[in-house]
Every structure is written in C-alpha cells, then in structure tokens.
C-alpha cells in the first residue's frame, strides 16, 4: 500500500528534474524583436502614438517624430443603418440584380461634372452596356419616376419592373410603344396590390390613351395567368404568388385617397363610413354602370354631411377628377335610398351621424 502511494510522487519528482535539466541546457538566444524607442526620452516601455491623420509616429512624452508615412490598417469607413449621408463609400458594387441580364460584373462610371467626366461616362456606357440592358435600365427609370410622382410604394414599383422584365424576355409587345407597356405594368401592379388606380389616373400620369392602356392590360393579364401556371420559379414573387384575374377598381377602394385630399376634421372616420356606404351602394339600381369615381365622390359628399363636416361638392369633384354635376346626380340616387343604405348604428345616439344634416340635393 505504501509503495503504491510513493510511486506517483516519485514520478512527479523525476518529471520536474527533467524539466530543470532541459532549461539549463537551453542555449542563450538574442532577442531579435525590433523595438522602436524615443532617442530623446529613452523610456521603457516607450510611450509612442500613431497619428493616422498625418501618417507619423510621435513620442507622446516629448513630441519627437520617430517615423512618417505609416500605413493606416484600420477600417477606411463604416456604414450605419440610419446614416442620412447621400455619399455611398462602397466600391465593391451591388448584389446581383434579378431585373437585369448578364453577369453584371462590369464597372459603372458615374456621371460627374465637367466635359471630360461626361465623355468618360458615355464612352464607358457604349463599351460596357449592351442594348438590351440599356433599354431595361431606361424603362426601370421611367417606372420609378412615374410612380414616385404619385407616391406609389416601392414594393409596387418593383412589381411593375418585374412584370416589364417578364414581357421583355418573352417579346410579348413587339412593336408596341414603351410608354403603353409601362402604363400597363404600373396599372396591373397597382391592381394586384389593391391600390385603387383608374385608367383615367394612369392616363393622366403617362399620357397614354385609356383605350391603349386597356388593350395592354388585357394582354398582360392573359400573359401573367399563363406564366403563373407554367413558371414555378416565379411562385415567390410579390405580383404573381397568387395571381388572379382582377376586377375593376371599386368605389370603396377610392374613398381613402379622396378623403386624404379634403383636409377633413376626422378623415379616418369619414373614410370608414364612406367605404361602408360605397360597398352598399351596389344595391342601388340607378347607380349601376356609373363610374366608381363618381360613386366614391358622392358617398364622401353624403358622409361628410352626415357627420356634420360638410364639404362643397366642387372640392370633392376636384379631388376625384369628376364634375360637380356628376356628384350631385349620384348623390340624388343615394339620398333616395338612404333608408336602406344608412344603418341605425351610424346615427346618434349609437353613432356619430345625424340624418337631419343631409342636404336634399
């Protein structure tokens, strides 16, 4: 038992003796590390500072410059999510853009100031960009500028661009003007996103006739339905994931935008009841076949009066883009059917409305 207890101790002692013998046999080696020291202060350890702005190594004690033209190894710049600076320091390019063709590995030279910079920009574009890519970039720029002019969201803009790219790849509109194709893409992207935009509004935005927009829209819708069935790769796209034939824009979809232009006392309340009234107005036979614009305008006119926040019909006509007489005519039919359209829960004491405030014409 004693032998078993002494063996581990003896082994440990032998190991320590071997380590000591090895340290004694180690030869002396000169320290070859290069150390920079101030020749004036000769402090150890040296108190040195790197001035990256001037590229100098300076003694922090006496100020003696010990080296110059040093290399700054720090990060050149940092980017932040909330950085509002318009200058982008990145020089490695964007990620692959699915809306463009090719490898997209070429370098783009920005359009700078001065004649030489403009010439360099044009020369680089002529040598690098092919004709198809130039056409796509021009179309995407037109879509963005048109959509920004009427505050269409970025997601809808991207949807319109993707639809344009699909039609361009399929050569669907060979010989048709680019303006009419862009107008159709914007219209169908808005329709799929449930953004109420009428042919009249797209016509005013693009100067393409309503008849031509309608033709383009029908061709696009037929093409996209076929594409959705045969192209599974597009299943995750915003505009095509559950693509369906769309119905015309209803009056209730237009009420929100018109209410936002009227400087109402309580726009959310007016919009809420206007939408409800517009959805029930389809039961009025005299309004069948009338434009959704005039029906939406008449509903807003009626609800504003009902909620004791009346607005002149000419102001609503300006917001909706219809005539004053059109609103009055549609309102007349709404007023005649007010008993069926206006629910008791909308009226006092349960609701905010008052039938006595409704004008007779």
Automatic annotation (TrEMBL):
Keyword Cell division: no
GO CC field: nucleus; transcription preinitiation complex
Cleaved signal peptide residues: none
Keywords: Metal-binding, Repeat, Transcription, Transcription regulation, Zinc, Zinc-finger
Region of interest: Disordered: 1-24
Keyword NAD: no
PROSITE patterns: TFIIB, ZF_TFIIB
Domain TFIIB-type, chain residue ranges per copy: 34-67
Example of a GO MF term: RNA polymerase II general transcription initiation factor activity
Any one of the GO BP annotations: transcriptional start site selection at RNA polymerase II promoter
SUPFAM superfamilies to which the protein is assigned, alphabetical: Cyclin-like, Zinc beta-ribbon
Protein family: Belongs to the TFIIB family.
Protein name: Transcription initiation factor IIB
Organism in which the protein naturally occurs: Pestalotiopsis fici (strain W106-1 / CGMCC3.15140)
């Amino acid at each position: 038992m004693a032998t078993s207890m002494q063996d581990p101790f003896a082994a440990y002692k032998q190991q320590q003796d071997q380590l000591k013998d090895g340290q004694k046999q180690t030869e002396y080696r000169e320290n070859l590390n290069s150390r920079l020291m101030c020749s004036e202060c000769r402090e150890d350890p040296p108190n040195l500072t790197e001035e990256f702005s001037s590229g100098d190594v300076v003694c922090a004690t006496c100020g003696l410059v010990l080296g110059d033209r040093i290399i700054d190894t720090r990060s050149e710049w940092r980017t932040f999510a909330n950085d509002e600076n318009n200058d982008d320091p990145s020089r490695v390019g964007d990620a692959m853009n699915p809306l463009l063709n090719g490898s997209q590995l070429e370098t783009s030279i920005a359009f700078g100031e001065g004649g030489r910079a403009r010439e360099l920009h044009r020369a680089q574009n002529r040598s690098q960009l092919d004709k198809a890519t130039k056409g796509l970039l021009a179309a995407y720029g037109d879509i963005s500028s048109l959509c920004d002019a009427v505050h269409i969201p970025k997601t809808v803009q991207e949807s319109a661009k993707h639809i344009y790219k699909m039609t361009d790849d399929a050569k669907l509109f060979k010989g048709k003007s680019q303006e009419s194709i862009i107008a159709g893409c914007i219209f169908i992207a808005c329709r799929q996103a449930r953004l109420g935009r009428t042919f009249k509004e797209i016509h005013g935005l693009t100067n393409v006739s309503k008849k031509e927009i309608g033709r383009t829209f029908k061709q696009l819708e037929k093409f996209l339905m076929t594409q959705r069935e045969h192209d599974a790769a597009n299943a995750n796209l915003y505009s095509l994931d559950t693509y369906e034939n769309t119905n015309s824009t209803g009056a209730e979809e237009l009420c929100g935008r018109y209410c936002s232009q009227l400087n109402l006392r309580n726009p959310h309340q007016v919009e809420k009841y206007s939408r409800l009234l517009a959805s029930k107005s389809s039961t009025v036979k005299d309004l069948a076949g009338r434009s959704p614009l005039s029906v939406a305008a008449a509903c807003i006119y009626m609800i504003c009066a009902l909620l004791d926040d009346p607005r002149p019909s000419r102001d609503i006509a300006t917001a909706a883009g219809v005539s004053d007489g059109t609103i009055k005519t549609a309102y007349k039919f709404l007023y005649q059917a007010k008993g069926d359209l206006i629910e008791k829960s909308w009226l006092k004491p349960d609701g905010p409305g008052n039938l006595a405030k409704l004008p007779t014409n």
